[in-house]
C-alpha cells in the first residue's frame, strides 16, 4: 500500500523521507553574487573599449591613399592624404606588399599640417626588400 499526502498532487512520485537527500528550496539564489559579477564584467568591458579606442579609434587622424606609382624592384612611391586637427602632427604607418601579399616594406612617416590646414597630401618613397605590388597606409595616429 502506498502512502498518500494531501499536499502531493495525484500522479506525483512519493519519495521515502531522507533517502534522496535534502530537496532544494525554491527562492532566491544569491542575487548579490550575480550583480557583482555583472558589474565586474561591465567594468572590464569598459576598460577594454577605452584602451582599444585610445589605440585605434581616433577619428581626427584619417589617411587615404591617393595613388601609388614609380614601382621598382627596390621601392614604391605612395601618395596619400591625411586628415588631422588644424596644425597637428601625425605618424602614419606605410606598408608595401608583393603580388603574393607578403609584406616587403614598412615605414613610419611623420606628417605635419602647416598653419591651420586640416588636410595634408604627402608623397613618400617607401624602400622595399623585393618588387612591391601595392603601397598602402595602415593607420595614422597622433605623433608622440
Short account of what is shown:
This is DUF4307 domain-containing protein. This protein has 144 residues and is α+β, with helices and mostly antiparallel strands. The protein is built from 1 helix and 6 strands, in the order αββββββ.
Descriptive report:
β1 and β2 (75-83) form a beta hairpin. A 3-stranded antiparallel beta sheet has the order 1-2-5, with no helix packed on it. The chain has a 3-stranded antiparallel beta sheet with strand order 4-3-6, with no helix packed on it. It folds into 2 domains: 28-57; 62-142, Immunoglobulin-like (Sandwich). The chain has 1 helix and 6 strands; from the N terminus they run αββββββ. 18% of the residues lie in helices and 40% in strands. It is elongated. The termini are far apart. The chain has 144 residues and is an alpha+beta fold. The longest helix has 26 residues, at 31-56. It has one helix at 31-56; strands at residues 62-72, 75-83, 89-97, 103-112, 119-127, 134-142.
Key structural traits:
144 residues; alpha+beta; Immunoglobulin-like; 2 domains; three-stranded antiparallel β-sheet; 18% helix
